[in-house]
Protein: DUF308 domain-containing protein
Amino acid sequence: MLSSFTAPLSRGHAALRGILAVGLGTTFAVWPGITIGTIIALFAIYTVVDAGVCLVRAFQHGVCGSDRALLGLRALIEVIAAGVAVFYPGATAAVMTVVIGIYAITLGGTELAVVGRLSKFNGNGWGWEIAGGVLSIMTGVALVVWPGIGAVTLAIVFGLYLAISGFMLLLAAAKTPSGRTVVA
Structure:
């Protein structure tokens, strides 16, 4: 899932992020023959935009210091991942696969850590967040363990991950009552 840690999203913001993830994910999965350069460019764009969103959210009123640190760490990881993708475009599909795999594992791990911390205070209702974190880690491990899968398989696996994560975010936005924030 596109982890957003503890800071709530507006329904519109959650839906926009979900649509972006579903759109990119579907594009990757449906047209896997696109070049690795296109995958790298789209990945870099996505991670930079999401890093910007995290930084904006980190400095919103009412966000505690630890949440700011987690959002800042996520933004830093995303900027580094985008930088590697942009400045080393000649890298093999295997290297890009490992970078994306580490990215997915890191986000899934932080999602599960935050859910574990928050579940102590707020009881139940964390199923989608747990499923998103597990999906992210499973995708990342598959990409890291089998880095030689190639650009086509990378496009399909990462595309399915993004599409499912985006769909889960859209569901969270849809089930949230009007005027309330989405915690995704």
